[in-house]
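Continuing the batch. This is chain 6 of the set; chains 1 through 5 are on the previous pages. Same settings as before, nothing changed between runs. Recording input and output for traceability.
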Amino acid sequence: MEKTETGDFSATPAEMAHALLQFDGRLVITSHVRPDGDAVGSALGLCMALQAAGRKAVCVGLEPLGQEFDYLEGLAEIIPADKYVPQEDDAMAIVDCGELSRINQKLREFAQQSALFCIDHHKSNSGFAKMQLIDSEASSTAELVYLVIKEGAMPITRGIAEALWTGLVTDTGRFAYSNTSADSLRHGSEFLKYGVRTMLINDMIYEQVELSRLSLMQTLITSLTLAKDGKICIVSLGPQDYAAVGGDAIDSDNFVNVARNVVGVQIAVFIWQDNENEPVHVSMRTRPPYDAASICSEWGGGGHAGAAGASVDGDVPSVRKMVQEHLKKIIR
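Output for chain 6:
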């Protein structure tokens, strides 16, 4: 293990596996708020593998989750953040999350004292954990969790493989994004050996749409604007839009892709706020040479070169104007 500048330790998959399996207490596994496929898949996959290896582990605060993940084993055992009661021997293992400020607010105070392990692939990870496995070259955190499971010789069931498959396919865009590697394809093929239900998972995640989502998308499209000769595309939704259809943040998951799919767009932004008491969220997708993580760092956010986000105080119109003006200055 190598010591980092903060005095903590950077681990290999083998070292992380050894540390997790040697930990005597209960591992409390969580990820970022509004978890996507990689967040929930990595957390559940790691939790179930540790349980299968005879260790104490629970998933906490993976919420809210959309119905597209209902096929995942272990969902019913996830403890809501407001129901979690820390035990004396608890320590947190945080996956697919680069900042403690990105986990459920009800868990942050405890995490500041007990964030022992972190497995992540975000290049903007702040290094908050005592032991960390961070690899920004990995396609997904699910891939890193898989390496940890393999190095620890932990059992793998179909449920574990499906959780990891979920993280892998969603973060690689079904093996289409530039982060897809030979390792990604090889690991995916290894998951299939455990009976992963690829057709069911694809149908649940990509082919079924709630009516409230379609209604929100209709509103979203009317908000679409282009700037800088079509290189910037911004869409947005405010609290009134969600209220009008009885929808919530889950219904607008990945709406940034509506902006990204417009021909000629190099920087796509989805700005949304589903509750007036919450911050305004900025979701960004970029194409080279623009770096989404670098841009979002302007507002305290982070992520990957091609996909990043931030949360900003204010209202949707003011944040939208701020973001657009900033992007106009950097677009070439």
